[in-house]
């Protein structure tokens, strides 16, 4: 992989990101500092610093409403941070954090079809430079199974034959067998998908490449019917419609990441937490997700999901309450 050359625009964006990450703690330590003095310390013009401050005003925590965004007060040409959104100290990575980032970026660089590889290479080079000898730790990241499976699926689709799939459906936590008529292979983000007409569902479906446990090329040619319309993926893979179940939960700080990771319909602040509404394709999937969040989430609806989670939690507690037979004495 050959890194793309760094353009002036790329360098400016990277420099600005680093400056923004350190700007809030810098200003917190100097309440009421003059803008001109701060600009001189940071090596930028007053105009650039004011543009940075305007950008910080729309940055903050999930929810992005009053009380979530970074806030500041101006008194003439002086500025004071009044809410830091948790960015209260300069960015410093521990050794474990730096190594984790290096591994994650190396994995991302090895993922087939990943876009913006030049940005990944630049970020990786910066972190490896900052990590020093730690970056030379014997950690090799390769994704041969994903890459080989992706290439094999592409070859099979190019052959124009129907496929028999053994496919794992995460939403229902089950493995199924199905025959499909391939249409195309595509990348969405870092994931590869096979788009095909599914004869079992009698509809066009997207199959994640990493969830295809096995496939066999059949003798018959692929023949998607005329009604097999490709998906519109401009907004991503999942397009929640109003016919899907609406799940409402209250999460604390430890669970607010779901508002960034999954499409949500509504997020509103509620005391020291957030009330989140999101559409899901399957309540079983929502049940497993929310149980995994533990005490940091309270399920508000729908009633069916509340009852299912309550029952499963009670069953788990009963397992702890039941006495276990004592182990047999050790042989002498």
TrEMBL record:
InterPro entries to which the protein is assigned, alphabetical? CBASS_pafABC_assoc_protein, PafC-like, PafC_HTH, WCX_dom, WYL_dom
PROSITE patterns reported in the protein's UniProt record: WYL
Q: Taking every annotated instance into account, which residue ranges of this chain make up the domain WYL?
A: 149-215
Q: Write down a Pfam family by its short name.
A: HTH_PafC
Q: Which keywords does the record carry?
A: Proteasome
User: Which named protein is this?
Assistant: Proteasome accessory factor C
According to the entry, every stretch annotated as the PafC HTH domain falls at: 15-128
- Please provide, in alphabetical order, the Gene Ontology terms of the cellular component aspect for this entry: proteasome complex
Q: Does the keyword Signal apply?
A: no
Claim: Repressor is one of the keywords in the record: no
Domain called WCX: residue spans: 246-317
